[in-house]
């Protein structure tokens, strides 16, 4: 083999489309863009336009909504947790929570909590103590089989719901106290 015998694979290099090079090429003068108008110019994006026909985004009905209070959990498989322990990124001793995993570089960010999944459950050998916001049955069984423990803490939503319930309870107590005292508060004098 010599340098002058080396060739690319057939079809790996495609010749560029030569525009505006005469009538015979079929792409002369207007370069295949037709005459004038919006689509003859560069930078045209008629996204969703279907030639005047009702476009698909108007033909189909609206459906559902976006829940602005949705919580986003960081998910971690047991296989990745075992890998992090094997790579000495995180110690199996002590408690492991979302903050510890972020600090160790196993996760990039906490989001609204940590949820442990059972992927790679058969690989888990380390005895770990986890503090999480959610865990699957498979993952919990695997951790307990390895001799570890799992503590499931309340999520932000549960905390918010508890706060709402406590607020309603306080309001009810206050109303009962006012009713016991002698009815509603006196009205402010008219100005």
**Order of strands in the sheet with the most strands?**
1-3-5
User: End-to-end distance, in Å?
Assistant: 106 Å
Q: Low-confidence runs (pLDDT<50, min 5 residues)?
A: none
CATH topology category name of the domain at 74-152: Ribosomal Protein L15, Chain: K, domain 2
Order of helices and strands: HEHEHEEEHEH
Based on CA atoms alone, the radius of gyration comes out at 33 Å
Number of helices: 5
Structural class by secondary-structure content: alpha/beta
**Helix content estimate:** 25-40%
Major sheet attributes: 3 strands, parallel
What overall form do the CA principal axes indicate?
Answer: flat
CATH level 1 name of the domain at 74-152 = Alpha Beta
Number of strands: 6
Strand content: 5-15%
Mean pLDDT metric: 90
The CATH level-2 architecture of the domain at 74-152 is identified as: Ribosomal Protein L15, Chain: K, domain 2
What does this structure look like?
- The chain is of the alpha/beta class.
- The protein has a domain at 74-152: Ribosomal Protein L15, Chain: K, domain 2, CATH 3.100.10.10.
- Helix content is 29%, strand content 10%.
- It is built from 5 helices and 6 strands.
- It has helices at 56-59, 78-86, 98-104, 137-145, 156-182, and strands at residues 74-77, 95-96, 114-117, 129-132, 134-135, 149-152.
- The strands form 2 sheets. A 3-stranded parallel sheet has the order 1-3-5. Strands 2-4-6 form a 3-stranded parallel sheet.
- The protein is flat.
């Amino acid at each position: 083999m010599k340098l002058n015998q080396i060739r690319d694979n057939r079809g790996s290099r495609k010749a560029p489309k030569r525009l505006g090079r005469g009538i015979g090429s079929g792409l002369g003068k207007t370069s295949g863009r037709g005459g004038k108008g919006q689509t003859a110019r560069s930078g045209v994006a008629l996204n969703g336009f279907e030639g005047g026909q009702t476009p698909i985004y108007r033909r189909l009905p609206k459906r559902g909504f976006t829940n602005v209070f949705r919580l986003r959990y960081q998910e971690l498989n047991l296989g990745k947790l075992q890998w992090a322990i094997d790579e000495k990124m995180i110690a199996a001793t002590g408690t492991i929570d979302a903050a510890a995993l972020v600090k160790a570089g196993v996760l990039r960010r906490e989001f609204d909590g940590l949820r442990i999944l059972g992927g790679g459950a058969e690989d888990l050998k380390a005895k770990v103590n986890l503090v999480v916001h959610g865990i699957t049955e498979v993952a919990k069984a695997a951790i307990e089989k390895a001799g570890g423990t799992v503590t499931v803490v309340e999520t932000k939503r549960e905390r918010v719901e508890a706060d709402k319930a406590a607020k309603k309870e306080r309001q009810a107590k206050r109303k009962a106290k006012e009713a016991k005292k002698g009815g509603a508060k006196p009205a402010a004098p008219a100005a």
